[in-house]
Amino acid sequence: MTRSVPCTARTRRGDDRHRRGRSRAAAGLAVNAFSSISLDPPLIMVAVNANASTYPWLFSAEHIGVNIVAENQVGVVRAFARSGGDKFAGLDWHPGTTGAPVIDGSAGHFELAVRYKIPAYTHTIFIGEVIEAAATDQPAMIYLGGGFFAQGQGLTPA
To answer: Which of the four, 36, 108, 136, 154, has the lowest number of CB atoms within 10 Å?
Structure first.
């Protein structure tokens, strides 16, 4: 079954110590398992692979950001999809209301207070209450059948 989903970059900010004693200003990864759960209270779920290099750091977060990647940000998606390294190097972003990283130029973002962490085989489902949300006029990038697509003028490879 082929389905289209918006590309999201899940982020966390902090200045605590991560693996091997390294300090990080921010961490993140690309996810495509993202969905609204409830409008009252506003809840969103994001599934994260427990083997992801940033998983332990995200698991300890009280607040996380979900950035809806714009169709012109294929470089952001590719950076966040790779394992390891500083995914924020050269990326314009700012701390949001909760301190979660908000990627500049994105189609929109959510800042979530983590309410539940549910183990699901190889993943953990994070359920967060929306604390802050914003959208821009940028069209979102779409992930469909293993590829990235722009939707602004129909589905064209990004």
So the answer is: 154
Residue 157: Cβ within 10 Å count: 9
In the block, tokens 């998606």 appear at 77
- Which DSSP string corresponds to 52-116? STTHHHHHT-SEEEEEE-BTT-HHHHHHHHSSSS-TTTT--EEE-TTS-EEETT-SEEEEEEEEE
For 5-45, the pLDDT digits (tens) are: 445 556 666 554 433 334 456 888 888 788 999 999 999 99
**Residue 1 in tokens:** 């079954």
Residue closest to 92 by CA, chosen among 100, 102, 83, 84: 102
